Amino acid sequence: MLARARAAGVATIVTIGCDLDDSRRALETAESFGLLASIGIHPHEAVSAPPDIAGAFDGLRTRGGERIVAIGETGLDYYYQHSPAGDQRRVLIAQLDYARKNGLPLVFHQRDAFADFVAILREHFDRATMRGVVHCFTGTSDEARMLIDEFGLWLGIGGVVTFKTAEPLREAIRAVGVDALILETDCPYLAPVPHRGKRNEPAFMTETLKRVAEVLERDTAEIAAITTSNARRLFACA
User: Fold this and answer.
1) How would you label 99-115 residue by residue, b for 16+ Cβ within 10 Å and e otherwise?
2) 114-124 and 141-151 are packed helices; what angle lies between their axes, rounded to 10 degrees?
3) Cβ-based neighbours of 111, under 8 Å, separated by 6 or more
4) Per-residue pLDDT tens over the stretch 119-149
5) Entry pTM
């Protein structure tokens, strides 16, 4: 998989943690294969979050050092409600506060919880000193503009942009332009056309790149360069 990614031109991979055990595995994978990692507690797992989230993250960072480049995946998901909404909000706020105190960017997950998500950002996200990406963005043009204009966030665009039913997402991309975008995979989910139904992997991001370039009527090399630069700014990595 990593060889195919390199052959496709993927130079840097951030593997994402979604609970404490998963974050440890992400770090171990990053250490073994020369990748970067995030550590975080996904809203689905919020009900099982430890009382001392900051202490748990400190322990992981003591081991992982500069390989850990972000906090997340964190956010709100009211679609599945695998964790009660109150737990999701509490755990999101704790991770926002940790990221702010430690100068780390955030990888956000938001599904069917936009109003509460924005309300929490308004109280706990400092645009002047913090950075973040709303991963797997599939919202409206108005939501995209709000996240960018009010909070300075980037939008993570994955394989969904290639789906036939995703015209609202393509309209949002046209509305905000490439400077607001970062390309991602959400592996192993949401493989782009023509790979739908397969396990997603980083090499498939070339299909997402081509579709975004078509949507914006720009050259693929230009889109690749700008979105890569955006990702490196977000994660502060060379």
Assistant:
1) bbeeebbbbbbbbebbe
2) 10
3) 76, 77, 78, 79, 80
4) 999 999 999 999 999 999 999 999 999 999 9
5) 0.97
